[in-house]
Amino acid sequence: MGPGGGGRRGPAEAGPPVPPPFVRVAPSLFVGSARAAGATELLARAGVTLCVNVSRQQPGPRAPGVAELRVPVFDDPAEDLLAHLEPTCAAMEAAVRGGGACLVYCKNGRSRSAAVCTAYLVRHRGLSLARAFQ
């Protein structure tokens, strides 16, 4: 289970369980939604030192000591995410090699952030595209 807990609510609270703002993808690599940037305590517990904000509009991290790298793209197939991948993945690898962890997030934590995590796993962890995507 990721650092966000089980997403369970107490018996007095109504509604469906709330998913954690981010989950572990690999050692020192997490993916999540924009809510993750505000999860200061969870970021600290996970050892996150770099947040990659794959959006033009979502807020940056609020945790002290956590750097932000913004990849300014909208969730639109016409955006050129590829142009940002090499420098973004290099910054992620530098954070990990420096002893930290990296959180990659976008609005919902499903497409842009997942694409960046996949690219990182292929480029710096040597996974095949199929395995990285899994």
From TrEMBL:
The keyword rRNA processing does not apply. Residues 79-134 form the Tyrosine specific protein phosphatases domain. It catalyses: O-phospho-L-seryl-[protein] + H2O = L-seryl-[protein] + phosphate; O-phospho-L-threonyl-[protein] + H2O = L-threonyl-[protein] + phosphate; O-phospho-L-tyrosyl-[protein] + H2O = L-tyrosyl-[protein] + phosphate. It comes from the Eukaryota. Its EC number is 3.1.3.16, 3.1.3.48. It holds the Pfam family DSPc. Residues 21-134 form the Tyrosine-protein phosphatase domain. SMART domains: DSPc (SM00195). Keywords: Hydrolase, Protein phosphatase. Monomer. PANTHER family: DUAL SPECIFICITY PHOSPHATASE 28, IP21249P. This is Dual specificity phosphatase 28.
